[in-house]
Amino acid sequence: MKKYIKLLSLSFMMIYFSSCSLYEDPPFLSEDDIFSNVEYSKTALNGVYGGLAAYNNYSMTIQVLINGFSGYFTQRMYGAQLFDPINQNLYSLKPQANSKEVEYVWRDTYATIGRANDIIANLKPVENPVSEDDKNLNNILGQAFFIRAFEYFNLVRLWGDVPLRLDPMTTENIHKPKSPASEIYEQIISDASNAVRLMKPKVTQDKGYPGAEAAHMLLAKIYMTLAGNKTAAETEYWQMAYDEAIQVYGKYRLVDFEQLWSDEGGDNSAENIFEIQFNLANPGAMMKLYTPNGATKANTWGRFFINIALFDEHIKLYGDTLNFIRHKDKRINQTYRSLWVNVQKTPPKSQKSYPFISRKNFMTSYPIACKYWSKSVNVITEHNEKNFIVYRYADLLLMLAEISNELDNGEQMEYVTEVLNRAGVAPHLLYFQGQDGFREAIMKEYAFELIGEGHDAFNNRRRGYEWFKSQVIDVHNNYDKWDPKLDLKLAEDENTVMHLPIPTTEINTNQDIN
Question: CB within 8 A of 250, min separation 6: which ones?
Fold first, then answer.
């Protein structure tokens, strides 16, 4: 049954040792040489981050996957049809085991973990470091622990029980059974805690690398996920989440929302806690993903449409229904685009979509996600050096607001108001309707602030199936503007919508997974 075992072994090792580095390939030296000095060890670390920046990881495919599995998006690819396979499967919350998005993200996530495992296995922590080299080596090891924790956190939330690979890949350990999610979480917490201990803080960290604060934020997200929909009286995880998140408070600051999404001004800003670095040698594909064909001189796609139930709610709460050009909420025009110019037409032609025109045609029935849309119409290449922001301070403030509401410590309004003040709006009425009202409002605020940034699928499921169904699936399926010719029908089966299936290639090649 497992006739592709040798092929998998060879292909996995080729992936592991192939070049995905942000800067250069790790040199083929002995392990003692690589991990005995800072320069070679940092080059190996760049290979780990290169795995995150790979085309089938955060450069493109994982964004297609997470956006699609969130319940907030419809996409255009195969002939721009509602009934294309990706829309009818992944984006309808009915993912298939042989989906290339499922296959590729699984493969490249484990490839990145494999690179981190190599560092962790060979670079030992220096207790009580004194020299700069010792501190730098500890920092590199901490970064490897951080990325391994981060990638396993993605895996366990997307797939549930998964194989736990902690050692460098060999032909002897290539087959691995699934470990229960509880065991995966134990390892993630251990790795993230090691990262907190070993990574340099923001103030002394090298530019482009996350500080220890990112590991604190990761731990806070882990504890929030483990808390689920329990109250603070039912679980200690909310307090644990607060203890980690508060370590980051005040160490970053909000910047102008428009600056975050400018072609250059948002990279490594004072708001960014963890971002994936792209450069001229290793550009990212976000511009191609988010910019519609014709909006620049480059060959771009414009893949992501935002479902209108969410968009309309954002406009209702914070927008201006009489003036769709200038909204009160500064986030709206940087998040959704419904009016643009096709510069590849002669002469250039104005393009409109919902809400500027009625919903009659699939291609014009949604606003388009535009945070990573190229702001220059004159670009001629579809890839650019824009970084992908994974964690930013606004997210941390929303987390503290949610946590504080669960703990009932009286701090929740302070944190959310910081985010809303930056947007130019005030808290809406639901925030003042007790703990339950605040909870519902803050969960939706994550979408208004962070949609398309890789968190939607996770935030929507974090409080469990009933929350996901009532607050996302039912809202979309029962929306009064829902049209079977224009809108996807989201699946409702808990066994289908909460986790992705193990990829077909893993089932066919891993002897320990049936």
Answer: none
For 150-208, write each residue's pLDDT tens digit. 999 999 999 999 999 999 988 888 999 999 999 999 999 999 999 999 999 999 999 99
Q: Is 316 exposed, middle or buried (0-12, 13-18, 19+ CB in 10 A)?
A: exposed
Distances from the Cα of 128 to the Cαs of 125, 138, 198, in angstroms?
A: 9, 10, 11
Its pTM stands at: 0.92
Tokens of 139: 């920092």
Q: What long-range pairs does 158-162 form, CB within 8 A, spacing at least 24?
A: 158/65, 158/66, 158/69, 158/105, 158/457, 158/499, 158/500, 159/106, 159/499, 159/500, 159/502, 160/498, 160/499, 162/502
Asked if 43 contacts 70 with a C-beta cutoff of 8 angstroms, the reply is no
Q: In the prediction, which pLDDT does 8 show?
A: 31
Task: Give the Å distances, CA to CA, from 16 to 60, 84, 115, 363.
Answer: 19, 33, 7, 39
The Cα–Cα gap between 364 and 181 comes to: 41
How far does Cα 187 stand from its chain's mean position? 20
Other C-beta atoms closer than 10 Å to the C-beta of 235 total: 16
Helix, strand or coil for residue 272? strand
Report pLDDT digits (tens) over 69-87. Answer: 999 999 988 666 899 999 9
**Alpha-carbon span 74 to 488, nearest angstrom:** 7
CB 273 within 8 A of CB 397: no
Helix%, strand%, coil% for the chain, nearest 5 = 50, 5, 45
Host H or E run for residue 276: strand 272-276
For the chain, domains (ranges, CATH) are: 5-199+500-509 (1.25.40.390), 286-384 (no CATH)
Query: What is the rounded CA–CA span in Å between residue 118 and residue 147?
Result: 12
The phi and psi torsions of 412 (rounded to 5 degrees) equal: -60, -40
**Which tokens sit at 451?**
């949609």
Residue 225, φ and ψ in degrees, nearest 5: -65, -40
Is residue 85 a contact partner of residue 78, using CB atoms and an 8 Å limit?
A: yes
Angle at 273 between CA 214 and CA 148, to 5 degrees: 40
Report the 3 state secondary structure along 278-336: CCCCCCECHHHHHCCCCCCCCCCCCCEEECHHHHHHHHHHHCCCCCCCCCCCCCHHHHE
Helix (H, G, I), strand (E, B) or coil at 2: coil
Alpha helices in 160-236 (DSSP H): 181-198, 212-227
Give me the residues paired with residue 284 across strands.
384
> Angle at the Cα of 91 (from 99 to 458), degrees rounded to 5?
95
What is the rounded distance in angstroms from the CA atom of residue 106 to the CA atom of residue 77?
A: 21
Question: How many other CB atoms are there within 10 angstroms of residue 84's CB atom?
Answer: 15
Judge if the upstream peptide bond of residue 348 is cis by omega within 30 degrees of 0. no
Q: How many CB atoms are located within 10 Å of the residue 360 CB?
A: 11
